[in-house]
Structure to design on (370 residues):
């Protein structure tokens, strides 16, 4: 019998398959009854699951990162697929094929690795090319760099995601730089694109469900990345000091703002370009993945995206014209509190909708009184 993948589950389907437990949280219903929130995954995606009964006994049978045989019923709730679990049993690792459970880049790792080598060969700056050749010659490093995801949840969340994202930035760099003429160090930008997230090879664990390592939680990928680059720079005889500073500045500033976890804000043209291209590629990939997850929904709008704090319209004007549905912000379900500081940037802005009254402020200033 063929494996049932998460991406193929439809509303009201009977679910009977083995999944990897990505998250496991005990919670309490309004009536005081405990229940279990699960996030199940395979290589095609992930899905929310609920266990409503016998949670105390079932809680002892499996943990996060275990493989479990699940039997239950699928349903669409608030535009999102979920599975109500009737039975769940832990499955030994030796009985599963790991390739069925970890999502992979749609691009071939072999193909992307070859492209990486080609990019390095085109570098005209001897010190930057030598720096990248040192990275390419490190077998252990290359094994991690080519397999790491780019993030845990936001974008390129699959094996090979870091390499795919980095190569995408190189293509964007080579497209953007000619538009602005001379005065931009393209080689520096290309190497910055390849190395800006290099610290993620040690920040994240990805042998099972993607998560952060102790080093990732304590240091973060920016600090780890600067250390990796500094170590290789010291191995290149005569590497220009200023060039080293400019490259490390790109790693330190690529998140753009302090509130987004950036130790420095971009202060060079190259760092500024990298910041915007990185942000664009990350967001486009993340939004596309969010839309793709909802193939079971007939709505033309996605569910609320917690991190981007908005709904996304699925249409693009290329299909037959349909009436645009309206989502009322006032009736949208309340979102849980967000822990990530970068996601709280809208917290101090009130949602005034269509109730803005531009003359009201002037009226309050008594400008209309005689």
């Amino acid at each position: 019998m063929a494996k049932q993948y998460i991406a193929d589950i439809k509303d009201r389907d009977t679910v009977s398959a083995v999944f990897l437990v990505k998250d496991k949280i005990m919670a309490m219903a309004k009536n005081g009854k405990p229940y279990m929130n699960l996030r199940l995954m395979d290589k095609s995606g992930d899905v929310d699951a609920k266990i409503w009964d016998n949670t105390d006994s079932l809680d002892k049978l499996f943990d996060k990162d275990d493989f479990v045989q699940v039997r239950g019923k699928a349903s669409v709730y608030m535009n999102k697929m979920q599975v109500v679990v009737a039975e769940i049993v832990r499955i030994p690792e030796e009985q599963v094929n790991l390739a069925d459970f970890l999502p992979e880049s749609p691009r071939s790792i072999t193909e992307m690795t070859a492209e990486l080598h080609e990019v390095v060969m085109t570098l005209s700056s001897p010190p930057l090319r030598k720096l990248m050749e040192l990275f390419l010659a490190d077998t252990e490093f290359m094994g991690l760099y080519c397999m790491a995801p780019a993030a845990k949840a936001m974008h390129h969340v699959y094996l090979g995601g870091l390499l795919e994202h980095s190569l995408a930035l190189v293509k964007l760099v080579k497209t953007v730089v000619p538009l602005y003429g001379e005065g931009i160090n393209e080689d520096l930008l290309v190497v910055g694109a390849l190395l800006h997230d290099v610290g993620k090879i040690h920040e994240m664990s990805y042998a099972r469900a993607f998560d952060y390592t102790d080093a990732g939680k304590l240091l973060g990928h920016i600090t780890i990345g600067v250390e990796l680059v500094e170590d290789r720079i010291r191995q290149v005889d005569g590497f220009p000091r200023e060039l080293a500073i400019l490259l490390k500045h790109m790693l330190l500033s690529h998140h753009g703002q302090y509130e987004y976890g950036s130790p420095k804000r971009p202060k060079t043209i190259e760092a500024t370009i990298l910041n915007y291209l990185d942000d664009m590629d990350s967001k486009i990939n993340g939004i596309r993945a969010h839309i793709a997850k909802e193939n079971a929904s007939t709505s033309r709008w996605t569910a609320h995206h917690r991190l981007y704090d908005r709904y996304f319209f699925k249409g693009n004007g290329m299909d037959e014209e349909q009436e645009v549905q309206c989502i009322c912000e006032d009736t949208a379900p309340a979102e849980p509190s967000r822990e990530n500081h970068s996601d709280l940037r809208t917290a101090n802005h009130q949602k005034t909708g269509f109730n803005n009254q531009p003359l009201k402020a002037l009226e309050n200033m008594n400008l209309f009184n005689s």
Summary: The chain has two domains: 6-100, 109-286. Residues 329-370 have pLDDT under 50 and may be disordered. The chain has twelve helices and seven strands. Residues 95 and 200 are 30 Å apart (CA to CA).
